[in-house]
Amino acid sequence: MSVFVCVECGKPLTEDVLALPEMPQRPHHTGEHGNYRATATVPRGRYAIDPEPFGAPFVPSSEDMPCYRGGSLYMYDENDHDVCLRSDGPRDTYVLHPQDANLVSIWHRGSCHGMSHFPEGWNKACACGAVVGEEISECYTHYELHLDPAKVRRRD
Known about the structure:
The chain is mainly β. It has no helices and twelve strands.
C-alpha cells in the first residue's frame, strides 16, 4: 500500500492505495440512460501510472487523435476552425479514482457535471496551496485524477 504526499509540505494527499500492474483501458462513455459520467478509469483504492503525456502545456497537433486519450482535446482557433491540441505535459502521472484524494479545487471550469480538461492546466492543490494534480470528471471526459509526479511523492 502507498500514500501520496505533497512535495512542498509532506501532507498526505490520498488514502492508502494499491498499485495496478498497468494503466487500465479507459471506459467508453455512452451518455445513455441518465448516466452523466463515465465509469472511473481506476477503481477506488488503486492507482496506475499513465505512460502518456497528460495535461498542460498543450501544443497543436496534426495527428488524428481521439479527444481526451492522455489529454488531447479540440479547441477552436481565431477563425473558428477545429484545432487538435495534444498534451505536452508530464509522463508517468499517477492516476487515481478522484474520491481517493483530499485536494482543494483551485479552479472549476466545466459544464454541468464535473471538471473539464482545458488548457489552463492543473486544477487541484494540497491544502498548503501547492498545485499537485488535475481532475477530469465532466460528462464527456474520462473520470480520473492525475497527480503530477514532480509535485507528489509516493510513500510506501
